[in-house]
From TrEMBL:
Keywords: ATP-binding, Hydrolase, Nucleotide-binding. Gene3D superfamilies: 3.30.1360.40, Cyclophilin-like. GO terms for molecular function: ATP binding; hydrolase activity. The keyword Nucleotide-binding applies. This is Allophanate hydrolase subunit 1. It comes from Agromyces tardus. The lineage of its organism: Bacteria, Bacillati, Actinomycetota, Actinomycetes, Micrococcales.
């Protein structure tokens, strides 16, 4: 895998990849082989920020480690969705976060119609998929989830809403997600959850933390 690296201050490197599939593959490879001094990984759609303690792992050493890891990966990774559960292939069901969802959002029926399936079939696909949090963006705690079990590309709304209620479960493109707080948004709403998606006072504030595996469970109103 070919990557480009840029310094990001004195304690981080920004790794540019060809796309999300490569970001996820590199994230997993680096997480498995991280030496002492690695502080954090911050994935995005086409980049991976690697934070280090330069007193333990100088940037030059970190760059060499990242390049070695990238070189050992395939030059063209599989589609992003095929890496949905790759963070820990040995992980069992106990390692999956389950999010209860009351389905029936404002866009459920229209989204199903656009995709050529029934609302019940769309919900079944969403529930049966095992998702991976690829990265966080847009707002604190807003995770972009991908899955190798998800066959759809969902068009965004032509006109974004000015107000999306907190807890709204939504779809856009190949991603699933949920709004941690009220905000504008252009994703299609298919349900709602009462799960706490963002808790700034917690040591683990984001329920949808990068690389975490997630399943959605249908609950009755």
């Amino acid at each position: 895998m070919s990557v480009r690296m840029l310094p990001a201050g004195h304690a981080a490197l920004l790794v540019e990849c060809d796309g999300l599939a490569e970001v996820l593959a590199l994230h997993d490879g680096l997480a498995r082989s991280a030496p002492a001094g690695v502080v954090e990984f911050v994935p995005a759609a086409r980049t991976l920020l690697v934070g280090v303690d330069p007193a333990v792992l100088p940037l030059e050493s970190a760059e060499s480690w990242i390049r070695r890891t990238a070189a050992a990966l395939p030059g063209s990774a599989a589609p992003a969705s095929t890496l949905a559960a790759a963070a820990d292939p040995a992980a069992g069901a106990a390692d999956i976060v389950t999010v209860p969802v009351e389905y029936g959002g404002d866009d459920l029926h229209e989204t199903a119609r656009l995709l050529g399936v029934s609302p019940e079939a769309l919900v079944a696909h969403h529930v049966n998929a095992v998702w991976r949090v690829a990265f966080i963006g847009f707002a604190p705690g807003f995770g972009y989830l991908v899955s190798d079990d998800w066959p759809f590309e969902v068009p965004r709304l032509e006109a974004p809403r000015t107000r999306v209620p907190a807890g709204s479960v939504a779809l856009a493109g190949a991603f699933a997600g949920a709004y941690p707080r009220e905000s504008p948004g252009g994703w299609r709403l298919v349900g709602r959850t009462d799960a706490v998606l963002w808790d700034a006072a917690s040591d683990d504030p984001a329920l949808f933390a990068p690389a975490r595996r997630v399943r959605f469970a249908a609950v009755r109103p």
